[in-house]
C-alpha cells in the first residue's frame, strides 16, 4: 500500500505528540514527524494540492492554534497553507536542509504568539492621524514586536500584527480594550492568538 502524503502545518522543537482535532481535508490525527531536534506537525492527506477553501484555511489555522494552546505556549514556526510532502522521507530531507533556519526561527519567536488588530471606519470617513499614531504607539508598547500589514480596503485605516509573549496576552487585551474605551467611535477588530506568520521568514517549496 502506498504511503499517504503529509500535509504540514508547522515545525516545533523536538517533541512527539498527537492532537485529536481535524486538519485540512478532515485529516486526523494531528501528529509529529521528527528529525533530530525538530518535529514537523502533520496529518495524512490524499492529494498534493488541497483546495484553498475557507474550511481548509480555517482548519490549518486552528491546528496551529491547538498546537500552541495544548502545549501551554508551545513555540511553533508555521508553514503557509498548502505545504504537502509526498513522503515522510521527503519531509525529513526538508527538515535536514532547513535545520539552521528553523532553529533560528524557533529562537526568534520562542514562547510568542501573534495577535492581530485592525481599525475600520465607515465608508467615506477618516481618522485623525494623531489618533491612529496614539493607537499604534500604545499597542506597540504592549508587544515585543509589530509589523504593518496591507491596508487592502479604503475603510481599513490600521492593520498590524503583534508578537506577544504567550503569558502576556491578557495585558495586550487590556491595552486593546483601553483603546476602545478611549476612542469609542473607532471600530477596533482584535483577533488571535495565531501562529507567528508575520514574524518568520522561511521560504520552502513542497517537495513532491
Please give a handful of descriptors for the protein shown.
single chain; 208 residues; alpha+beta; Alpha-Beta Plaits; six-stranded antiparallel β-sheet; 31% helix; 29% strand; elongated; gas vesicle; GvpL/GvpF; Gas vesicle synthesis protein GvpL/GvpF
Kindly give the count of domains: 2
| Beta-strand residue fraction | 25-35%
**In one word, what is the shape?**
elongated
Helix and strand pattern: EEEEHEEHHEHEEHE
Low-confidence stretches: none
Radius of gyration of CA atoms, rounded to a whole number: 19 Å
Structural class by SSE content: alpha+beta
| Biggest sheet layout | 6 strands, antiparallel
Which percent bin holds the helix content?
A: 25-40%
- Total of helices: 5
Q: How far is the N terminus from the C terminus?
A: 18 Å
Number of strands: 10
- Summed over residues and divided by their number, the pLDDT gives a mean of 93
Characterization of this structure:
With 208 residues, the protein is α+β, with helices and mostly antiparallel strands. The protein has two domains: 5-109, no CATH class; 112-194, Alpha-Beta Plaits (2-Layer Sandwich), CATH 3.30.70. The chain is built from five helices and ten strands, in the order ββββαββααβαββαβ. Strands 1, 2, 3, 4, 5 and 6 form a six-stranded antiparallel β-sheet that branches. β3 (30-35) and β4 (38-45) form a beta hairpin. The longest helix is centred in the first third of the chain and has 17 residues, at 54-70. The two termini are 18 Å apart. The mean pLDDT is 93.
Task: Give a quick summary of the entry.
The chain is an alpha+beta fold and 208 residues long. It has helices at 54-70, 88-97, 99-108, 129-141, 169-182; strands at 5-13, 18-19, 30-35, 38-45, 77-78, 84-85, 112-120, 145-148, 156-165, 187-194. The protein folds into two domains: 5-109, no CATH class; 112-194, ACT domain (Alpha-Beta Plaits, 2-Layer Sandwich).
Amino acid at each position: 500500500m502506498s504511503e499517504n502524503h503529509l500535509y504540514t502545518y508547522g515545525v516545533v522543537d523536538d517533541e512527539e505528540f498527537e492532537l485529536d482535532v481535524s486538519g485540512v481535508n478532515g485529516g486526523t490525527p494531528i501528529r509529529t514527524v521528527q528529525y533530530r531536534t525538530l518535529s514537523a506537525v502533520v496529518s495524512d492527506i490524499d492529494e498534493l494540492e488541497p483546495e484553498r477553501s475557507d474550511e481548509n484555511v480555517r482548519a490549518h489555522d486552528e491546528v496551529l492554534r491547538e498546537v500552541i494552546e495544548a502545549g501551554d505556549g508551545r513555540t511553533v514556526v508555521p508553514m503557509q497553507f498548502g505545504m504537502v510532502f509526498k513522503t515522510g522521507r521527503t519531509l525529513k530531507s526538508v527538515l535536514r536542509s532547513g535545520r539552521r533556519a528553523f532553529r533560528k526561527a524557533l529562537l526568534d519567536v520562542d514562547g510568542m504568539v501573534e495577535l492581530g488588530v485592525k481599525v475600520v471606519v465607515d465608508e467615506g470617513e477618516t481618522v485623525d492621524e494623531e489618533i491612529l499614531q496614539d493607537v499604534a504607539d500604545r499597542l506597540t508598547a504592549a508587544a515585543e514586536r509589530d509589523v504593518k500589514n496591507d491596508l487592502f480596503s479604503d475603510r481599513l485605516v490600521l492593520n498590524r500584527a503583534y508578537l506577544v509573549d504567550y503569558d502576556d496576552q491578557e495585558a495586550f487585551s487590556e491595552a486593546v480594550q483601553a483603546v476602545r474605551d478611549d476612542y469609542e467611535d473607532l471600530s477596533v477588530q482584535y483577533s488571535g492568538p495565531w501562529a507567528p506568520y508575520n514574524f518568520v521568514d522561511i521560504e520552502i517549496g513542497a517537495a513532491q
